[in-house]
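Subgroup meeting minutes
Present: P.N., E.W., G.H.
Scribe: E.W.

1. P.N. recapped why we're keeping a running log of single-chain structure predictions: easier to compare across weeks, and new members can see raw inputs and outputs side by side.
2. G.H. added today's entry (151 aa).
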Amino acid sequence: MAKIGRNQPCPCGSGKKYKRCCWEQDRSIPPTTTPATSDHSDLLTLQHDDLFDDMELDRLSNSVITLVNAGRLDEADAVCEQLRTEYPEVHDWLMRKAMVCEARGETDLAIEYCQRTIDWMDAHPEDFDPESREPFYADIERLKNASKDTN
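Output recorded in log:
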């Protein structure tokens, strides 16, 4: 079975992101094969640690939105850097950095980070459906149009 990305639409058809729908349930399903000498406590610890890491990732990623909305852009930028260093295997920092740049009026940088988010998705096609890129393409067009209007 192909790996489902956290931000992909849930395969159950609910219309929600996988992480907001069946992800939690799927993660609690025990693996089909386990070492014969294991008491399974190591598996429970790994599952708990993975769940905690994903919850912390979501908390940090969402905090950027809150900070941007509050106009605390330096703090939002610092959280983007924290996301980049602590979670280099996900694209959250790129899309959040685009938000920070846009809030600062750095349109060209915001466009660049949107494009880098798309590039990340293209480099990890197993984690993203093609339509998951559409909001970033729309953001790029919106930002380009806004930039034309101010020039």
